[in-house]
Amino acid sequence: MTTALHTSSLTSLPLLARGKVRDNYAVGEDRILMVASDRISAFDVIMGEPIPGKGVLLTQMALFWFDKLTGICPNHLTGDAPESVVTEAEKAQIKGRSMLVKRLKPIPIEAVVRGYLAGSGWKEYQQSQSVCGVPLPAGLSNAARLPEPIYTPAAKAEMGEHDENISFEKTVEIVGDELAAQIRDISIALYKKAAMFAQTKGMIIADTKFEFGLDENGTLTLMDEVLTPDSSRYWPVEGYEAAFRAGQNPPSYDKQFVRDWLEQVRINGQPWDKTPPAPRLPREVIEKTAAKYQEALERLKA
Ligand SMILES: Nc1ncnc2c1ncn2[C@@H]1O[C@H](COP(=O)(O)OP(=O)(O)OP(=O)(O)O)[C@@H](O)[C@H]1O
Ligand SMILES: [Mg+2]
């Protein structure tokens, strides 16, 4: 395994932005080199310790899904090798963890699709029997499968802020009715196809988030990462049933170990207030998390 990369440091390309996970570099005017680091964020705070192998995993998983999902909507991949735009000395840093993509005009909507009731969806349902204005049947419990997948968009938050659930009408205000409907319909189609495939590998995709941008011709294009454990809630089918019956959250392939640990940690006797700096992650939490990410990709590719 390559050494863990918390923050990339390419000097041959201008840095556009560092996200919570990805470092984006400009390649000319029209392309971006997206480097997935091994950073992990929880409760929207970036941890100080990297998760070795995570960036490579996320990238390999996104590439796997881009390939599986061709035909529904164009995506941002250029097909050019990421190694071709950096110096010899920089190749090791980006190997396996980068995508060379078209630079798009990002649409400020997180296109969330849910097939199951979990997380903020479950919270909202308990208060209003609906999620993002989508009415749902009464009597659903935590982690219940929905009769049909629903589209529950969110507004993309600024760095350090939490995304905010919004109604479909609100997305119409942001991008107009034609584009809003197109984003919704494509997102649901992508989710359905992915969920059906994952099911054959013994995995449930409870929910996921897509991001879109417009290319130079104004064509709606799928961008960012797709269907990674960072952008999606994956549950192993075998763990799902038991947890669902017991009224518990099904085990997931993501940051659950980190979140659980952060929820119980005490700093001078006090719980962590979920603002930076994050407490130091113990080695065991790091290792278990790395193994979970690995397992998700292995199951998909099996
Ligand atoms: N083809 C593209 N053109 C332009 N911007 C893109 C493209 N693909 C992805 N992006 C943007 O690049 C950034 C990727 O970085 P990263 O995922 O770390 O960001 P983040 O959104 O801050 O974190 P998180 O995903 O954890 O919320 C995002 O802001 C995403 O919208
Ligand atoms: Mg992101």
Quick overview:
Helices cover 32% and strands 25% of the residues.
Describe the fold and architecture:
32% of the residues lie in helices and 25% in strands. By secondary structure, it is an alpha+beta fold. It has two domains: 15-104, Phosphorylase Kinase, domain 1 (2-Layer Sandwich); 106-259, D-amino Acid Aminotransferase, Chain A, domain 1. The strands form five sheets. Strands 7, 8, 11, 12, 13, 14, 15 and 16 form an eight-stranded antiparallel β-sheet that branches. Strands 1-2-3-6 form a four-stranded antiparallel β-sheet. α7 (256-264) packs antiparallel against α8 (283-301). The structure holds adenosine-5'-triphosphate (ATP) and magnesium ion. Adenosine-5'-triphosphate (ATP) binds at residues 19-22, 24, 32, 41, 76, 101-104, 106, 211, 213, 223-224.
Keywords:
302 residues, alpha+beta, Phosphorylase Kinase, domain 1, D-amino Acid Aminotransferase, Chain A, domain 1, 2 domains, 8-stranded antiparallel sheet, binds adenosine-5'-triphosphate, binds magnesium ion, ATP binding, ligase, SAICAR_synthetase_CS, EC 6.3.2.6, phosphoribosylaminoimidazolesuccinocarboxamide synthase activity
The portion of residues assigned to helices is 25-40%
CATH topology of the largest domain: D-amino Acid Aminotransferase, Chain A, domain 1
CATH superfamily of the largest domain: ATP-grasp fold, B domain
Question: In the CATH hierarchy, what is the architecture of the largest domain at level 2?
Answer: 2-Layer Sandwich
Listed once per kind, the bound small molecules are: adenosine-5'-triphosphate, magnesium ion
Strand content: 15-25%
The H-and-E topology, N to C, reads as EEEEEHHEEEHEEEEEHHEEEHHEEH
Mean pLDDT: 95
Number of strands: 18
Whole-number total of structural domains:
2
Gap between N and C termini, in Å?
Answer: 20 Å
InterPro entries: SAICAR_synt/ADE2_N, SAICAR_synth, SAICAR_synthetase_CS
Pathway: Purine metabolism; IMP biosynthesis via de novo pathway; 5-amino-1-(5-phospho-D-ribosyl)imidazole-4-carboxamide from 5-amino-1-(5-phospho-D-ribosyl)imidazole-4-carboxylate: step 1/2
Organism: Corticibacter populi
GO molecular function: ATP binding; phosphoribosylaminoimidazolesuccinocarboxamide synthase activity
